[in-house]
Specification:
alpha+beta; 22 helices; flat; seven-stranded antiparallel sheet; 37% helix
């Protein structure tokens, strides 16, 4: 008897269909045959097992003298439910699996072909075998990157020894145990230390091996953006015309003062604009690489505002529908043998898609010769466990909603990746006027190549695709050195330096993927290239935890910003090793080496335990009252609701009584409020005249503030009103974004 175990029921049913298991049991299917032997199919429900919370006696937790907790052996338990007790559904399925394993001769691991899938399966095997030694049987591995019938049948005919994937399991196990060690100890150490200095504090300050460096990325960018002081500069813009074409040129120099720029503009207005240089240059834009999971999540965020978790769930569904290849891939390349399948995939796409631009491009490319296919995404050496995402060779059902959006993104990228490069002609022109240099340029698409896939408009000189929101580049006439043009208008344009933009899902995923690229250490920068923090398979889950579980970051429009709690955590640990993005990236490198068999997992475990001891000591010995020093300056502020102490932070003020929690943002209409103003609002309900508020249109105004206390979803907060200085006071409510729903 052979027992196949899938990672989830839907995959299990596909395996049952292909092996002929048509008789339904409780948690399994039976009656089929594999390689001439009777077989049954069962399944996990994702993570059926986890590291047990009582790995070390729970009584040891939350006591300083027992930290760090460093168990020599990690125990497993059924996955817990919301009540922190073993989930009855998971317990029941584990019993089913235990019974089937005890009755079988061979087990076939049919989990997802990746590090996480290997851990899910091995932990189930370990848990049931620890309970029942009769379950210990030989293991074979089904390893596939596609859910088509052809791929599954081929995989079942060519099962691999389970031991071939031991290194992959060791890497996954090392990652899980490292997360447990760092998370448990850092969380308890920080929480206990905060409570030592602030006895009334009841919150748990959760930290994590990857979560905390990710939070640090968000907070540091947010504070850098918030505290950025823009610097004004001025340029000179000249409008002119030649050969019936109107266009403008801009000064190459940025002027530090309006007066200097205006002086040039006045001289230019009565001068001629002379061409000093005119060059045509050919420019080739290579097609983009195929999607891996991260790049697909980035594109879905930019185009459809989908979260990484939504994208992953959607592409996983498409995979199980046999429409795309394995989604949890970190590679953007395919091997040469897969390249041979591309023509058939293109023909299938041309016959089944309902998207006009995709169908047109697919028909054109499928009719071309095999040798004309682009090769930029073909590289055997850059394919990891799984190749890049591709559309399968199966017919497409009538997809709608998110499934259609993600399917089309993968289809578009597959077409783009194997299309010809885009060839352009770039005209760059230099001018001289009023003793200053000016320039302008325009781009003309000669051969659109891969850009036709998304509907490039070749009538536009820049060849911008229709989904691009930027204004099209201006068109320049043919100009020659020595030409003199009339200045129609010369004007001074004011600009301001801009801070780095706040993160979006798209840019945050990129920052996680390329963490370390800004390091001053060239060795670190080189080592972390394309490694980053987290993996393609885990980054979505990390962000979901930070947003939905920890509530350390949140989404405002498309921007990702920290919450008040997130800022608190960051301020507490920003200078500690646990926030070091580069260090976390180096751990990811080590995990990859374990998976490749280049490093024993025991070496990584030793380093993690040393780090855990270090960070625990660092957190327990930190003087949290130093971190709270800014708040301590305002300890004489009294809460108007409960009389408790109000602490003032960089971005907000909040009552220390957790049951009350009255809070107020410190920035109102672009004005950062002084602590004296905060004190007046909390205690007297009004402020003095405040100068320098700024409206959305950029105009400044002066006003007083009046305290208004609102309550929403058990949260109490001060939402001040503006009181203007005139005979009949006018009031304007300052609603938070969250209140405008």
């Amino acid at each position: 008897m052979i027992t196949l175990i899938a990672e989830k029921p839907s995959v299990g049913m596909e395996l049952a269909r292909l092996t002929g298991c048509r008789t339904r049991g409780d948690g399994f299917m039976e009656g089929g045959r594999l390689s001439g032997e009777a077989c049954r199919v069962t399944w996990a429900i994702g993570h059926l097992c986890q590291i047990a919370e009582d790995t070390q006696t729970q009584a040891l937790h939350w006591k300083v003298e027992n930290l760090p907790v460093l168990p020599q052996q990690f125990l497993l338990s059924p996955r817990l439910g919301k009540d922190r007790k073993p989930d009855p559904g998971y317990v029941k399925q584990l019993r089913v699996i235990e019974k089937l394993f005890s009755e079988t001769d061979t087990i076939v691991n049919c989990g997802d072909a990746g590090r996480e899938g290997e851990v899910i399966q091995r932990w189930i095997y370990q848990y049931v075998c620890d309970k029942n030694p009769r379950c210990s049987k030989p293991i074979k591995r089904l390893w596939i990157s596609s859910m088509t019938d052809e791929a599954i049948r081929d995989g079942l005919k060519n099962l691999k020894p389970g031991a071939d994937f031991d290194s992959l399991y060791y890497a996954g196990k090392a990652r899980a145990e490292a997360d447990w060690l760092v998370g448990i100890n850092a969380t308890e150490a920080l929480t206990l230390t905060v409570k030592k200095y602030t006895p009334g504090e009841k919150r748990v300050f959760s930290l994590g091996r990857v979560q905390t460096p990710t939070l640090a990325l968000v907070c540091s960018r947010y504070l850098e953006n918030k505290n950025f002081v823009p610097q004004s500069f001025w340029t000179v813009k000249i409008n002119t015309e030649a050969k019936g074409v109107k266009f403008h040129v801009t000064s190459d120099k940025r002027f530090d003062s309006y007066g200097a720029a205006e002086a040039v503009a006045k001289r230019a207005a009565v001068s001629l604009l002379k061409v000093t240089q005119a060059e045509h240059n050919s420019k080739t834009i290579a097609p983009p690489l195929l999607h891996d999971q991260t790049s697909l999540q980035q594109e879905a965020s930019r185009r459809y505002d989908m979260s990484p978790e939504e994208t992953l769930a959607t592409v996983q569904k498409l995979y199980e529908m046999k429409l795309v290849t394995y989604p949890r891939t970190g590679s953007r390349f395919i091997p040469n043998d897969v390249l041979k399948t591309i023509p058939e995939r293109l023909r299938n796409l041309a016959e089944n898609t309902n998207e006009p631009t995709i169908r047109t491009a697919a028909k054109m490319m499928s009719s071309n010769s095999f040798s004309s296919l682009g090769r930029r995404s073909v590289n055997d050496g850059k394919v990891t466990d799984h190749h890049a995402l591709l559309i399968e060779k199966t017919a497409t059902p009538n997809l709608t909603g998110k499934e259609l959006c993600i399917y089309n993104l993968i289809a578009e990228r597959m077409l783009e990746a194997f299309a010809a490069p885009c060839e352009c002609d770039v005209l760059s022109v230099k001018f001289s006027c009023a003793d200053e240099s000016f320039s302008a340029s325009s781009t003309r698409v000669v051969k659109p190549g891969w850009k036709v896939v998304r509907g490039v408009d070749v009538s536009e000189p820049s060849g911008k695709d229709k989904n691009n929101e930027e204004e099209p580049e201006q068109k320049l006439p043919e100009l020659s050195v020595g030409d003199s043009l009339t200045v129609k208008k010369a004007e001074t344009i004011q600009g301001q330096t801009k801070p780095k933009p706040l993160y979006t899902y798209e840019s945050l995923l990129e920052a996680m993927k390329t963490a370390g690229k800004d390091s001053d250490d060239d060795e670190v920068k080189a080592a972390l290239k394309d490694i980053g923090i987290g993996t393609a398979a885990t980054r979505a889950a990390i962000l979901k935890i930070l947003i939905d579980v920890r509530k350390y970051i949140k989404k405002e429009g498309k921007k990702i910003v920290p919450t008040e709690t997130g800022i608190e955590i960051y301020n507490l640990v920003k200078d500690m090793d646990i926030s070091d993005v580069a260090m976390t990236g180096r751990w990811e490198i080590a995990l990859s080496m374990i998976a490749d068999g280049e490093m024993p997992a025991s070496d990584f475990d030793k380093k993690i335990r040393i780090f855990t001891e270090s960070i625990t000591k660092q957190l327990l010995s930190s003087s949290i009252n130093d971190t709270f020093s800014k708040a301590a300056q305002a300890e004489n502020i009294t809460c108007p609701l409960c009389g408790s102490i109000v602490k003032v932070w960089d971005t907000y003020a909040k009552c220390t009584n957790r049951e009350c929690g009255l809070s107020m943002n410190r920035t109102i209409f672009g004005r950062h409020l002084a602590e004296k103003t905060i004190k007046n609002l909390f205690e007297t309900g009004k402020s003095g005249l405040i100068r320098g508020f700024m409206s959305k249109s950029g105009k400044t105004f002066d006003a007083r503030l009046k305290r208004v206390i609102n309550e929403k979803e058990d949260r109490k907060y001060i939402n001040p009103e503006l009181v203007f200085e005139d005979k009949k006071p006018q009031y304007k409510k300052l609603y938070n974004k969250s209140d405008k729903k």
